[in-house]
Amino acid sequence: MTEHTVAAQLSSFAATVRPPELPISDVSYVVEDTAVGRMLLARNEAGVLITSAYVPDLEAEDAWLHRLARAVSPRVLRLPRALDQVRRELDAYLTGRRRDFDVPTSLVLATPFQRTVLGHLPGAVAYGHRTTYGALARDIERPTASRAVGAALGANPLCVILPCHRVVASSGALSGYAGGLPAKEYLLALESDTEPRLGNTCVSDRIPG
Prior knowledge:
By secondary structure, the chain is of the alpha/beta class.
């Protein structure tokens, strides 16, 4: 066999070799560094987004992955390409190039009360606007449940996508947010067409009654 023949065979073999194609898992996820912090994005096998959660450290990341494994399926796989659509949409949103999301979502990780609160949220407060915990409680016909509404928003499994950051205290002060108060301030500034920045701000951790 000549050297030329061996080289041709090797070239032909290399042309047929492809990297392995990983299948879409029951739950595919990626951890993304965003303008408002480190976030875990996860979708189910059907391509429906089920998590966009803040994970500032590995402990928080592991907690969300265990939650996904318990609630949806133990077949959880890190697969960034499966989240390409939401990654593009989230980046465009956080840089002011879009105002909503097209990716389908599911509140499979939410409690029934959370589903009521979070499901009502997009229609209750539009981009660039704010509402209060008390107003949202009245909207869902639970006028005395402002604290429960606050707790439901605080455990939102679809942060940014479902805009719990638009809910503030009755005084107008910012209050607790899963991504931290600077992230909440950034999102509100972005949506109000003011200069968004991550930094210190005068806020309140108290959810008003």
